[in-house]
C-alpha cells in the first residue's frame, strides 16, 4: 500500500472511531485509492505531519427507472463520501471547506446534483443540502408473507452464496440506482462484510440479494433483484440465516411490504442545475457512499 493510500485509510479509521482490525475501506472500498474506481476524486488538507482532513467525491450516472420496459434515463450526478478529519483538528471548519471545494468541482463538471449520506445532517444542511427521496424498512418475515400470497413459488432455482461475475451482470442491468459496468467490478467485489445470495436455474443466475455491511446496514437486505419466484427463495434462505433481518427498498417497488416501520428519507442532496429531483429517485445499499 503506497503512502497516500495508507494515510487516507488510517485517517478514515481514526475519524470514524473504528475498533482495531476494522477498516472503513472494507465497507466502502469505492474510496480505496488503490482500486481506481471510476470517477473518484479526493480533496485533502495537510499540515507538516501529513493528511489531517479529506473529502471524497464520485462522478457517476444515476438511472432514473422505467416501468414500461424502456431503457432508464441517465442523469450525471456526484456522490460525496469518506468525509473525515483528525480528532485534534475538529471544529475548525476543515471538513466544511473540503465539502465546499468538492461541490464546486462537481458544479464545474456540469453534474445535475450532489448526493450524500452522513451522521451529521446539520453540517451538510449548512452547505445547502436537503433531505430527499423515500425508502421503506420492514421485517423480512413480513415481506416473505406478502410474497407468498402474490407469486407462484412452486418452481424456484437453487440458492447459492457468494458474489460472482454473473451475479454482478444482473446488478448492472437493474433499472434504478447507479449505472455500473465492468470497470466497477474492481471495487464492488471488495466489500468485505456483505453476504451475497443468488439463485441459478439451468446453469444461469436468475436472482440475487445481499445483506449487511460492517459500519452500517447491519442486518439489512439492501440489494435484491431478478426473477421474483427465485428472489422469494433467496429471501427465505436469508431469513433462516438471519431471522431478525430487515428488508430495505423503495416504497413503490415490488415486493410489497405490508405493515412497515414507515417511510423515511433516502439521502441528502444539493441540486446544481435547474432540473428537479425525480420522484422515483433511488440508490441501492452499495451505491451509497
Number of strands: 12
Largest sheet, in brief, is:
12 strands, mixed
Helix content: 25-40%
Beta-strand content bin: 25-35%
- Spell the H/E element sequence: HHEEEHEHEHEHEHEEEHEE
What value does the Rg take, in angstroms? Answer: 19 Å
pLDDT < 50 stretches: none
N-to-C terminal Cα separation, in Å?
22 Å
Q: Look at the structure and give the mean pLDDT.
A: 90
Number of helices: 8
The coarse overall form would be globular
- Coarse structural class: alpha+beta
Structure notes:
It is built from eight helices and twelve strands. The chain is an alpha+beta fold and 289 residues long. Helix 5 runs antiparallel to helix 8. The mean pLDDT is 90.
Gist of the model:
This protein has helices spanning 3-15, 24-27, 94-109, 121-125, 140-150, 165-172, 185-188, 228-241; strands at 40-47, 50-64, 73-85, 113-116, 130-139, 158-161, 177-178, 195-201, 204-211, 220-226, 246-249, 263-271. It has 289 residues and is an alpha+beta fold.
Topology readout:
Elements: H1 3-15, H2 24-27, E1 40-47, E2 50-64, E3 73-85, H3 94-109, E4 113-116, H4 121-125, E5 130-139, H5 140-150, E6 158-161, H6 165-172, E7 177-178, H7 185-188, E8 195-201, E9 204-211, E10 220-226, H8 228-241, E11 246-249, E12 263-271
Parallel strand pairs: 3-4, 10-11
Antiparallel strand pairs: 1-2, 2-3, 2-7, 4-12, 5-11, 5-12, 6-8, 8-9, 9-10
Amino acid at each position: 500500500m503506497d503512502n497516500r493510500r495508507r494515510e487516507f485509510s488510517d485517517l478514515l479509521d481514526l475519524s470514524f472511531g473504528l475498533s482495531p482490525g476494522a477498516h472503513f475501506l472494507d465497507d466502502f472500498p469505492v474510496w480505496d485509492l488503490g482500486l481506481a474506481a471510476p470517477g473518484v476524486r479526493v480533496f485533502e488538507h495537510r499540515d507538516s505531519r501529513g493528511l489531517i482532513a479529506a473529502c471524497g467525491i464520485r462522478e457517476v450516472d444515476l438511472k432514473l427507472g422505467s416501468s414500461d420496459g424502456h431503457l432508464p434515463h441517465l442523469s450525471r450526478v456526484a456522490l460525496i463520501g469518506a468525509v473525515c478529519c483528525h480528532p485534534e483538528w475538529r471544529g475548525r471548519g476543515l471538513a466544511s471547506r473540503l465539502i465546499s471545494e468538492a461541490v464546486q468541482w462537481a458544479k464545474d463538471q456540469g453534474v445535475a446534483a450532489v448526493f450524500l449520506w452522513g451522521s451529521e445532517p446539520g453540517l451538510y444542511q449548512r452547505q445547502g443540502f436537503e433531505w430527499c427521496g423515500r425508502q421503506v424498512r420492514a421485517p423480512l418475515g413480513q415481506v416473505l408473507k406478502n410474497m407468498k400470497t402474490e407469486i407462484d413459488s412452486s418452481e424456484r432455482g437453487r440458492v447459492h452464496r457468494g458474489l460472482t461475475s454473473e451475479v454482478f451482470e444482473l446488478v448492472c442491468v437493474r433499472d434504478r440506482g447507479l449505472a455500473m459496468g465492468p470497470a466497477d467490478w474492481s471495487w464492488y467485489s471488495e466489500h468485505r462484510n456483505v453476504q451475497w445470495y443468488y439463485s441459478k436455474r439451468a446453469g444461469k443466475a436468475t436472482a440475487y440479494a445481499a445483506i449487511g455491511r460492517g459500519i452500517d446496514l447491519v442486518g439489512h437486505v439492501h440489494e435484491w433483484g431478478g426473477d421474483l419466484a427465485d428472489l422469494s427463495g433467496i429471501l427465505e434462505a436469508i431469513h433462516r440465516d438471519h431471522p431478525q433481518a430487515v428488508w430495505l427498498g423503495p416504497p413503490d417497488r415490488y415486493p410489497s411490504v405490508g405493515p412497515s416501520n414507515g417511510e423515511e428519507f433516502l439521502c441528502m442532496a444539493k441540486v446544481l442545475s435547474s432540473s428537479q429531483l425525480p420522484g422515483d429517485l433511488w440508490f441501492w445499499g452499495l451505491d451509497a457512499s
